[in-house]
């Protein structure tokens, strides 16, 4: 008797559940289990691989129910542009969904990356964009300090005298210094760099789909002594120490009007607002979230990108040699490459574009959220749905790229060796940094750092395989999984030219 009642209750619950969460005019997608949706069919740490498989079957807009959430996956550049950049869609589909990270780590979606779409977000984003433009690309002082950091990097590699080395710790340290310079106007010391990396590592572990999903559904688990609870507590401890270091110490030594780095730019804005009687808008917690944003978004993305590109170049020595020839032609060997050389170095630009396409190390970007019901490609996307941008499939679609699994920088050049114009279909299909109103704020900074690191290294050193052992494959399908992909650890040799 009990079994019959239980069955009746379960069937009723299922019917109710399906009715409440039903989507009118469903987009195609994988089959779903009650309550769990398609979660059991997903390889959660290699989500991009599962979604790629389904995108080939179900098309560029598909619906994957994850738990009770409708998740729409967009897998072609044309549709990404329509959804996130076109009028009629861009004010609806550029929200960020509620997530564990946004709520518990980013202090209720403060800051830019996880900020809810609206006026405060738009103002924060503008400040970040202008601040990065000022400090990241244009300001001579930052450029000079960045060059000093690169000189240190070159020196430490020269000291290795052509021995095998692991590029990961050296790049990590150097890029952490750059972020330190950007935020505070000065380099970070060893212990601060460690702290930044400890924060980043735990952040990345928590950002993993499976961990995020479980913690979002059962937030009390963050207090339980299981691995994800421990990761959360390590992350919170690192966050507190980062805030003590970058926010509290900096505020104590802040002199109005001074601009030691981006944090001072924010303090200046805050004090201007206060003197105008507007204390509501730029709060201390927003400034703290802003600092976290720069570290979270700016460091691992660039470090992993460079690690991927170096590995690809180890496998393509012909590209290293062509870049070297271009450097000799444009820069010479007397001075270091600088950002003003970039527009006259099309081959180097093509290598960077092609490497970022080929590896697509941020395969699914950051999820978007729908603020209202909206029709897209004949399907209704209901309010509250999540949207995943599937850059991985977009960048490896044979219909666009022909031979997507070949690393071929020349695809971005015309017959005269010049870069294809920005409106060319291939350039338009390259969406490494997203598109529309949430496009990456650090795109210019990231591309200019990658340019400076690569050209400086190639001007000074020849790229060689390690003497001991072999290098792992540069095929991105073999890379270590996660929200940001990276290759298996590898050794390389750089010999002074
Ligand atoms: C190779 C390096 C990088 C890659 C591949 C990358 C990629 C991305 C992607 C795909 C997005 C999501 C776009 C969307 O939601 O539609 C994003 C957002 C963002 N990125 Fe980057 N990024 C990189 C470096 C950086 C750097 C260096 C910074 C800053 C220092 C940065 C700051 C941000 C911020 C603040 C957002 C959130 C924008 C928003 O929500 O409005 N990124 N990035």
UniProtKB/TrEMBL annotation:
Cofactor(s) required for function per UniProt: heme
Subcellular location(s) of the protein: Endoplasmic reticulum membrane; Microsome membrane
GO molecular function: metal ion binding; monooxygenase activity
Residues annotated to bind heme: 440
Entry annotated with the keyword Metal-binding: yes
Keyword annotations: Endoplasmic reticulum, Heme, Iron, Membrane, Metal-binding, Microsome, Monooxygenase, Oxidoreductase
High-level lineage: Eukaryota, Metazoa, Spiralia, Lophotrochozoa, Mollusca
The keyword Oxidoreductase is assigned to this record: yes
SUPFAM superfamilies: Cytochrome P450
One Gene Ontology term, aspect cellular component: endoplasmic reticulum membrane
InterPro entries hit by this protein: Cyt_P450 (IPR001128), Cyt_P450_CS (IPR017972), Cyt_P450_E_grp-I (IPR002401), Cyt_P450_sf (IPR036396)
Protein name in UniProt: Cytochrome P450
Homology family: Belongs to the cytochrome P450 family.
Source species, domain of life: Eukaryota
Membrane association type: Peripheral membrane protein
Gene3D superfamilies in the record: Cytochrome P450
């Amino acid at each position: 008797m009990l079994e019959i009642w239980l069955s009746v209750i379960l069937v009723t619950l299922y019917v109710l559940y399906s009715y409440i969460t039903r989507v009118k005019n469903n987009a195609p997608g994988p089959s779903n289990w009650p309550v769990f949706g398609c979660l059991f069919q997903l390889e959660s740490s290699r989500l991009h691989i599962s979604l790629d498989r389904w995108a080939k079957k179900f098309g560029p807009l598909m619906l994957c129910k994850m738990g009770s959430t409708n998740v729409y996956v967009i897998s072609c550049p044309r549709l990404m542009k329509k959804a996130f950049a076109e009028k009629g869609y861009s004010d609806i589909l550029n929200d960020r969904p509620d997530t564990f990270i946004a709520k518990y780590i980013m202090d209720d979606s403060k800051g830019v990356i996880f900020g809810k779409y609206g006026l405060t977000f738009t103002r924060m984003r503008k400040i970040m964009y202008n601040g990065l433009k000022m400090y990241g690309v244009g300001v001579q002082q930052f450029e000079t300090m960045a060059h000093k950091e690169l000189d240190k990097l070159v020196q430490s590699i020269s000291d290795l005298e052509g021995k095998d080395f692991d590029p990961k710790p050296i790049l990590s340290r150097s890029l952490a210094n750059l972020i330190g310079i950007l935020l505070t106007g000065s380099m970070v010391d060893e212990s601060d760099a460690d702290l930044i990396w400890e924060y980043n590592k735990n952040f990345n572990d928590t950002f993993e789909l499976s961990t995020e999903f479980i913690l979002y559904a059962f937030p009390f688990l963050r207090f339980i002594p299981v691995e994800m609870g421990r990761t959360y507590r390590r992350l919170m401890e690192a966050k507190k120490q980062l805030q003590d270091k970058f926010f509290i110490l900096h505020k104590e030594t802040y002199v109005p009007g001074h601009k030691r780095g981006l944090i001072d730019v924010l303090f200046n804005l805050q004090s201007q607002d206060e003197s105008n009687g507007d204390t509501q808008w730029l709060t201390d917690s927003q400034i703290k979230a802003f600092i976290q944003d720069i570290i979270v978004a700016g460091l691992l993305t660039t470090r992993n990108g460079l690690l991927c590109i170096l590995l690809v170049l180890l496998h393509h020595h012909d590209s290293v040699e062509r870049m070297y020839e271009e450097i000799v032609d444009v820069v010479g060997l007397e001075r270091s490459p600088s950002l003003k050389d970039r527009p006259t170095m099309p081959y180097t630009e093509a290598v960077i574009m092609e490497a970022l396409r080929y590896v697509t190390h941020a395969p699914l970007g950051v999820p978007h959220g729908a603020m209202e019901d909206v029709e897209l490609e004949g399907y209704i996307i209901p309010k509250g749905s999540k949207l995943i941008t599937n850059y991985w499939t977009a960048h490896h679609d044979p219909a666009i790229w022909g031979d997507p699994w070949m690393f071929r920088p020349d695809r971005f050049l015309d017959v005269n060796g010049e870069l294809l114009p920005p409106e060319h279909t291939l350039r338009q299909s390259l969406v490494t940094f997203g598109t529309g109103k949430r496009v990456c704020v650090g795109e210019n900074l990231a591309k200019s750092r990658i340019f400076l690191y690569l050209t400086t290294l190639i001007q000074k050193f020849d790229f060689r395989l390690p003497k001991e052992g072999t290098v792992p494959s540069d095929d991105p399908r073999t890379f270590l999984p996660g929200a940001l992909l990276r290759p298996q650890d590898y050794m390389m040799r750089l010999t002074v030219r």
